[in-house]
Amino acid sequence: MSIPSRVRLIDVGPRDGLQNEKQPVPAAIKIELVHRLQAAGLKEIEVTSYVSPKWVPQMADNHEVMVGLSRQSGVRYSVLTPNLKGFEAAVRDQPDEIVVFGAASEAFSQKNINCSIAESIERFAPVVEAARAAGIAVRGAMSCTVGCPYEGEIAPERVAYLAGLMRGIGVQRVDVADTIGVGTPRKVQAALEATLQHYGIDDVSGHFHDTYGQALSNTLAALELGVWNFQSSVAGLGGCPYAKGATGNVATEDVVYLLHGMGIETGIDLDALVDAGAYISEQLGRPSGSRVARALLAKRVG
Ligand code: HMG
Ligand code: MG
Q: Quick one: 249 exposed, middle or buried, by C-beta within 10 A (0-12, 13-18, 19+)?
């Protein structure tokens, strides 16, 4: 398999990135971030989640954020919906895609969405059916495909099992997530290969958190398998509230730099992306988590 010549990035910063922020981030700032990401050329943006505000207070402004967007044609706006209640709220705000999110680990499923893997699939099934009937695309996020904060290492067979269940209920494409960033290239490849038993290469994406600094290596390992869809987070924002110590996704700026350096097309303007990352980092009052952004910003000053 040769390395893809084009990659599609989904920026999950507004959702995965900001969900973990302790202080409330005003909806206007989230909206501005989405606008800057689309201006930088992102064609897919994960905007928010329709989850319980008791569980994730930061996403309680989902409606305000979604209706406040000036949408750009050709951009896909996705949102997380864990159950029918979330879907019914989301559908009023017209997302292009909804995301159901399960885990390859039982313990993580319980901690994150308060039910077993089997129960989660039962809950997702009517959500997937309703979304598809409404012409809304459906993605499935699969957490802990390499390691789990509660169960340790996760075998590829468990990833294949979850991918099969997702496929069985009609989920159109899936994200192979290394939630706590413990993966290394061969392990991530094994999780991707397990998923490829049930999904074609165009419908599998990599979602790598960078907790152990492995996410770029894992991205390259995924590219070697032909995977060409990835999720990343501008300025490396984020972490999962139910995975202690997990840091953000790999920074979008870092992935774009890697890809452009390899001659792989993304359609993204790195300078504009760095501006978007600088904007949100300034709003949050801390330096960007992107090494590439920090290097390029330092050069601008110099
Ligand atoms: P539950 O407590 O089992 O739900 O939570 P329930 O059905 O028993 O309802 C309890 C209460 O929640 C009720 O309210 C419901 O109305 C309300 P009350 O009567 O107590 O006032 N409720 C809701 N409210 C708003 N929106 C909803 C909703 N559903 C129920 N959709 C639930 C189950 C899934 C809701 C809960 O566990 C939850 O919200 N979890 C959120 C988890 C989350 O957002 N995690 C982060 C995203 S996943 C992630 O980051 C991983 C990913 O990036 C990939 C990776 O890196 O691994 C995707
Ligand atoms: Mg994540």
A: buried
Identify which of 51, 91, 139 to mutate to test ligand 1's pocket (most ligand atoms within 8 A of the CB). 51
Q: Please give all residues whose beta carbon lies within 6 A of any atom in ligand 1, as ranges.
A: 16, 19, 49-52, 55-56, 80, 82-83, 85-86, 101, 112-114, 141, 143, 177, 179, 207, 209, 240-242
HSE of 259 in the Cβ direction (CA atoms, 13 Å)?
28
Q: Tell which CATH classification among 3.40.1190.20, 3.30.565.10, 1.20.1250.20, 3.20.20.70 matches the domain 8-301.
A: 3.20.20.70
Ligand 2 mean position, distance from CA 302 (Å): 35
| Least confident among 147-156, 161-170, 293-302 | 293-302
What pLDDT, in 10s, does the model give residues 184-228?
999 999 999 999 999 999 999 999 999 999 999 999 999 999 999
10, 15, 52, 237, best to mutate for ligand 1 pocket (most atoms within 8 Å of CB): 52
> Cβ atoms within 10 A of the Cβ of 72, count?
14
3-state secondary structure of 71: coil
Per-residue tokens: 19? 């969900």
- The Cα–Cα gap between 190 and 301 comes to 43
